[in-house]
Amino acid sequence: MKGYRALTRATARAALTYRFNLLLGLGAVLVQLVALLAVWRVILGQSSVNGFTWPQMRAYLLVAFAAGTVVSVLGDFRMAFRILDGDVALDLVKPIDYQKARLAEAIGGLWIEVILIAVVVGAALVIGGGVDVPAGPALALFAVSMLLLVPLKFLIVYVSTLACFWTQNYTGVQWARLAVVNLLSGALIPLVYLPGWLAAVAQWSPFAGLTSTPALIFLGQVDPLHGLTLVAVQLGWVVVLWFGARLVWRAALRRLTVNGG
Amino acid sequence: MRTVRLYLRLLGAHFRSLMEYETDFLILAVATVLMQVVNIVFLAALFKTVPAINGWTFWSVLMMFGAVALAEGVGSLFFDGMWQLAWHINRGQLDYYLVRPYPVALQSSSAAIGINGLSNVIMGSLMIGAGLTHVDIAWTPWRVLLGVVLLISSIVIKLSINLATNAVSFWLASPTPLFAFAMHQVGDLARFPLSVYPMALKAVLGMALPFAFISFFPVAYLLETGQSAWLGLLTPLVAAYCAGAAALIFKRGLRRYESAGN
Amino acid sequence: MPIVEARALTKVFRRPDKGPGLAGSVKHLFARRFQDKVAVDHVDLSIGAGEAVAYVGPNGAGKSTTVKLLSGILVPTEGEVRIDGLHPQRDRMTVAHRIGVLFGQRTQLWWDLPVSESLAVLRDIYGVDHATYRKRLARFDEVLELGEILPVMGRKLSLGQRMRADLAAALVHGPQVVYLDEPTIGLDLAVKDRVREFFRGIRDEGTTVMLTSHDLADIEGFCRRLVIIDNGRIIFDGDLEAVKDRFARERILHVETARPAPLETLRASLPGAQVTVDDSAVRYAVRFDRFTMTAGQAVTALAGLTELVDFRVDEPSIEDVIRRVYSGELVLDGTGTGR
Fold first, then answer.
1. Residues B22-56: pLDDT tens digits?
2. CA pair distance C232, C37, nearest whole angstrom
3. A23 and B182 in contact by Cβ < 8 A?
4. I need a labelling partner for A86 at 20 to 30 A (CA). Which of B81, B235, B243, C88 fits?
5. CA of B245 to nearest chain C CA: how many angstroms apart?
6. Closest chain B residue to C94 measured between Cα atoms?
7. How far is B117 from chain C (nearest CA, A)?
8. Do C230 and C285 sit in the same domain of this protein?
9. CB-based contacts of C68, cutoff 8 Å, min separation 6
10. What ipTM was estimated for this complex?
């Protein structure tokens, strides 16, 4: 346990040195926020669509931004390059669980991501006006959902970086993941707007928990029972992916030790 | 011209190494296609809610997305090395470039081939093509010629912005093209009709970094959509201006490299 | 007309004087302070066609900066450079065909291309015709054994392989002038030998070579002319052998005798030489000036006194001279007379 806490602290301290990479990763999510805000303001200017009014959509997009910023920035490339550079060999020798170690590092980076989120959301609220905060129980459920977001996002990113054991081109894997996640998580457009079958697939996929679930809970668009189900699905995926990742890891190790670096 | 022939030769040298890593190449190509597919699904879903946004229909916005993809694709396919300029400057690699009898900018941009560019060129062309078949345009020879000119101009603008923003690396100490990349992301805003944005952003996308002339204005002119559609005619002029500005910025940057060392 | 000419060549680097950390950077925005570093200070250099010049100096003396100024990579703050009468910046394309450069610390090979392909691309950039190219490559192969590394990818080359390939790359277009900046750094002895043989080969063909190196064995037997630079100024420019004759006259004869011999007797037989006991009772070192006594004379004299088992003679090297120059023990004026 101590080892992991040290990793968290180390990453937290180093977070500022990565500030440029951070701003870069932030850039994409920020640009998407600005574009979507602009477009939806026109569409929903007159009337609501599919149960979304403009103030609601604004809130949705801000939650999507927050969800998109978390664990995005520090985790990805560092984890990938570790494997691509062969440094992972050093990690394997340490008496520390690789997966838990990476999670500890991801948590270490959270503080700076939270600050960035606060700044952007704060600015958006000042410029565009406030949002309705949901009632107590819904708010609590939202908080839980956001907390679950961290390990869920981490696991999805983590599993995709394991692809580095099989291919040199991590960029391709990352782009594919970003595209699929962007759509199926509801970040690009709320799932309710997607064709029925696609929305259903997305809803039951691990990705819904990355944006749609916490956002819908925050908007109060789901009744308490539905909300709890959604959060349960989130949790379920965290568990499945946690152990699934370990299986992939074992396969990766076999490949590493058989093929060399 | 010999310069062009040599450029293709320089690019071609990387083709063999691309072929060596077939899986990686395939992954990147497929991922890029996937990105555009997601864009299309998004647009389709968006336009199910309204028939048009500020007069822009699904097909016309699809054309804008396609134009951006196409321009970016050409950049990645033929000029991807530009994104390594920051790295080369940082490592002093330009020293060797300066000693060879070939323009430094071209040596730099030919340093890599981005196979994702091929996917974007294909997808972008398909998106533009699909858009064109679903809109009412009276195709006269003049209009066809104009379309081609606008297309080339739009690509030139994208390449110029790439060159200029990457040339900023001459003034920054970073080994990665952060500024250029950030500006590139801003360009994604121009995939949507300009009228949805506040004035300040419109000015930025129209003048400071004329991303709007890559997609919005040319398409607006061809489709005669919106009030400022006539601005699309200025696209070739903007292209010439951007190319000149980019060349100037690069030259200045090179002069800085020669006087400050690295 | 000299093929490389530098007059009052000066390069001053202006570096911002920033305090450490974020606070320093911010302060610098308001109170800009700069530090001027004079890397090259009014250097006058004239190299004739076909010369092999050694350009030597301690770290930070300005050697690499001079090379960059002479190849047009850097613009001088003051003074001028002419390559074959041409201006390196104004006539960049023409000058590029005349010169070749090798920076030992950096490669100009493409990372993701095999060496053969890198060389072929350079051939095309310089417009070398295929027949000439093949002949040249064959000649390189003789000495550098290029054949075995041609199919290897740039990023997979060992240091020795990389240097050999980079040498070929620098000369693929048959330039009249070649600048070699630390071309043997980090190489093992076998490769160094091969590379040095290659240097002699290109010199013999008439190529003008300017060599900077920290390994002074590189310049022995290769460069006729020695230029020493320190703190941006040239402190010596003259004939290498002449320098050695003047300042590296001392030789040491080490002998091993069958039986210990009385030191005074040995000393008496070798007037003008210093005789000391080496590391054991039967080993002696005779220090003498090679212009006042030959090694043969010394050996003959000693052999007459006692039975010699073994001997060797330590040669003077330019390294000793330069070491003494660096340490300040020996001060050369520009023409090679010293104090």
1. 788 889 999 999 999 999 999 999 999 888 888 89
2. 10
3. yes
4. B81
5. 22
6. B101
7. 19
8. no
9. B95, B261, C74
10. 0.89
